[in-house]
Amino acid sequence: MQPTVIAPSILSANFAKLGEEVDHVLAAGADWVHFDVMDNHYVPNLTIGPMVCEALRKHGVTAPIDVHLMVEPVDRIVPDFAKAGASIISFHPEASAHVHRTVQLIKSHGCQAGLVLNPATPIEVLDWVLEDLDLVLLMSVNPGFGGQSFIPSALEKLRRVRERIDRSGKAIRLEIDGGVKADNIAEIAAAGADTFVAGSAIFNAPGSGKHGYAEVIGRMK
Ligand code: DX5
Ligand code: ZN
């Protein structure tokens, strides 16, 4: 199991003050920045692209940027995100014609590669590709929006994927995304996750701003 990572999803941040918001969550103890890219095609929402990633790097963000691509097709945006400073790039197998090729494409651009499983995507999609991955991201909500409730079947899925990762003997992270809160994170960690995305639970925490963020991230850790 890898050391625990808390990755605030900036989807729930105040976009008018994005640089400041990212500085504040990192100062509050966050480890990574989770960067949700939605294209109004693979998912109904429309968010941010490589220019915003690059702007965060220019602003001085040195923490890993964990790019979650909810775009279709996926391959043509990969080089742009690598150039913009992405550290990890994850994608949905449904959005790639050739999953193995997309994994290799991400790595050939110097980034770590992750595969994202929607709540109803069977874990067999990991067959033949697991050992090439740096990260498996399990969705515990349907992708597209922040602030949804954690789908309980994700716990059993976490256990099963944890088993497969352990059996592989590789240092592959197991990330969970959707509905993660301070009061369910212990149960999620016990099921095998080591990397936790949280958007609304952090950015909408009572008394938000620097102190609110530190309080909720501290409780999660
Ligand atoms: C949903 C995104 C998530 C989302 C999580 O498609 O991938 O990263 O921002 O938000 P919360 O933590 O509010 O469920
Ligand atoms: Zn995400």
From TrEMBL:
Keywords tagged on the record: Carbohydrate metabolism, Isomerase, Metal-binding
Binding site for a divalent metal cation: 34, 36, 68, 177
Similarity comment: Belongs to the ribulose-phosphate 3-epimerase family.
Catalytic center residues: 36 (proton acceptor), 177 (proton donor)
Reaction(s) catalysed by this chain's protein: D-ribulose 5-phosphate = D-xylulose 5-phosphate
Taxonomic classification: Bacteria, Pseudomonadati, Pseudomonadota, Gammaproteobacteria, Lysobacterales
Free-text remark on how the cofactor is bound: Binds 1 divalent metal cation per subunit.
Superkingdom field: Bacteria
EC number: 5.1.3.1
Associated pathway: Carbohydrate degradation
Required cofactor(s): Fe(2+); Co(2+); Mn(2+); Zn(2+)
Pfam families tied to this protein: Ribul_P_3_epim
Its job: Catalyzes the reversible epimerization of D-ribulose 5-phosphate to D-xylulose 5-phosphate.
Species the sequence originates in: Lysobacter cavernae
Binding site for substrate: 9, 68, 144-147, 177-179, 199-200
Stated name of the protein: Ribulose-phosphate 3-epimerase
HAMAP family named in the record: RPE
